[in-house]
Amino acid sequence: MKVNQLSKLGAVALVALTTAFGAGAAQAADLWLHVTVHESEENANVAVNLPLTLVETALSMIQVDEIQSGMLQLDDDTELSAQQLRELWQQLQATPDADFVKVDSDDETIRVFKEGNYLMVRGTAKSDKGSEISVRVPAAVVAALLDGADDNQLNIGAALRALAHEGQGELATITDDDAHVRVWIDDRPEGR
Questions:
Q1: Terminus of the chain with fewer CB atoms < 10 Å: N or C?
Q2: What is the spatial distance between Cα 131 and Cα 117, in angstroms, rounded to a whole number?
């Protein structure tokens, strides 16, 4: 998998997340969502620090074709419906900790696995500088995301509330040749 593909996989995972966490739940009002991007090629640094409550409030205000009141409407031509994803998730939750997907090729290693109450993705591109992705999603966040009102909706608002309930922790990191992206939640207004 090329660096760009790892980044795309990370973006997909982040959508699911935005939509891990250490022990101890905190109040959503006390938590901040942080995203940092460091790009060496562009010599640019971006830091986004938002109260989780602001993210949830803003999400409820989005009214576009695909997103209404915190619900993401999947297209009819999506390969798996939200209902099918719910059925898969129910089965996945019932399984013990395990590796679900392992890829080890000349170009990459990828592992999708369940560990405790987390769904995890780890990947490394086997290039000179070895791009890496690490995503940690609490099971409660996935369950909330899949708690849609109809067969083809994902509940981003519920996922954010579940994320707040989980408390502080790392969500994702993506590193490649010229960039580093980190997403996490903590109780500080400025990222650490």
A1: C
A2: 26
- pLDDT of 128 reads 65
Give start and end residues of each alpha helix (H) in 19-109: 52-61, 82-93
Residue 134, SS3 per DSSP: strand
Structural domain harbouring 83: 3-186
Give how many domains the chain has, as a whole number. 1
pLDDT single digits (tens) 110-162: 999 999 999 999 999 887 677 999 999 999 999 999 987 677 889 999 999 99
Question: What distance in Å separates the CA atoms of residue 114 and residue 100, rounded to the nearest whole number?
Answer: 8
- The answer as to whether 93 is a domain residue is yes
Spatial separation of the C-alpha atoms in residues 101 and 83, rounded to whole Å: 22
In a domain, 119, yes or no: yes
Tens digit of each residue's pLDDT (9 = 90 or more) over 30-62 = 899 999 999 988 889 999 999 999 998 898 888
Is position 148 within any domain?
yes
Residues 6 or more apart whose Cβ sits within 8 Å of residue 56: 28, 70, 157, 160, 161, 164
Residues 6+ apart with CB under 8 A from 84: none
> What is the pTM assigned to this prediction?
0.76
Is the separation of the CB atoms in 6 and 133 below 8 Å? yes
Distance CA 109, CA 88 (A): 24
Q: What is the pLDDT of residues 58-111, one digit of tens each?
A: 988 888 888 888 888 888 788 888 888 889 999 998 999 999 999 999 889 999
